[in-house]
Design goal:
222 residues; alpha/beta; 10 helices; globular; disordered C terminus
Length: 222
């Protein structure tokens, strides 16, 4: 059973998400909150698998809520998925760095929303396609704090290669094809890299790969 916490200051939206989730046999909404402070308290109380968190809320916004969940060892298994109306770039970067597993725009189709919840529950990074395009475009054209000498210490060469491919948006199956290994081995490389780098999920690996200099940014004319 996938346990979900809804954190959004709009009751109508919370009701709509709950209605979609409650009819699924493998998903249970364990609590609802109207702001980030309440959401954080309920996360500690219920220990959900997924926290669906609105990015703009009173009292405590979604980015700060995400940061506090990610910083709490007791909530290490809680995957935060940010809900947004806009998909603004600056929000994407701040929330990913805070520890978000991904983003969803609120006008997502119901079947895509349910799929997204299940994907996030598995620990996979989740970004709406429109946001993914903007995210990758921003990273590969305007890297921040790039240190080409830093790399990612502690990784094997194969783990570094796998992380670099994750940063290019490849799935485990695609990584396996590129590295000429089995999908299981590809998944193992990615998971070991996540453990060594203390990354909560694949979204965090993307951030680390670009900020460390493991993956070099493209120039605008390439």
């Amino acid at each position: 059973m996938i346990r979900v916490l809804l954190v959004d200051d709009q009751p109508l939206l919370r009701s709509g998400f709950r209605a979609l989730l409650d009819v699924e046999d493998d998903i249970e909404v364990v609590a609802e909150a109207a702001d980030g402070k309440e959401g954080l308290a309920l996360a500690r109380e219920h220990l959900p698998d997924i926290a669906l968190v609105d990015i703009q809320m009173p009292v405590m916004d979604g980015i700060e809520t995400t940061r506090r969940i990610a910083a709490d060892p007791a909530l290490a298994r809680v995957h935060v998925v940010i809900l947004t109306n806009y998909g603004l770039d600056e929000h994407v970067f701040h929330a990913l760095r805070a520890g978000a597993a991904g983003f969803l725009v609120k006008d997502i189709e119901p079947e895509d929303f349910l799929h997204a919840v299940r994907v996030a529950a598995r620990g996979d990074a989740l970004l709406a396609p429109s946001i993914t395009r903007r995210l990758i475009d921003r990273y590969v054209t305007e890297p921040q704090h790039l240190d080409a000498e830093a790399g990612l210490p502690g990784l094997t060469n194969r783990e570094r290669e796998a992380v670099a491919l994750v940063a290019r948006g490849l799935s485990n199956d695609e990584i396996a094809d590129r590295m000429v290994i089995s999908p299981l081995t590809a998944k193992t490389h990615v998971n070991r890299a996540m453990v060594k780098l203390h990354a909560r999920d694949r979204a965090q690996l993307v951030v680390l790969a670009y900020e460390s200099g493991l993956v070099a940014p493209r120039t605008r004319d390439r």
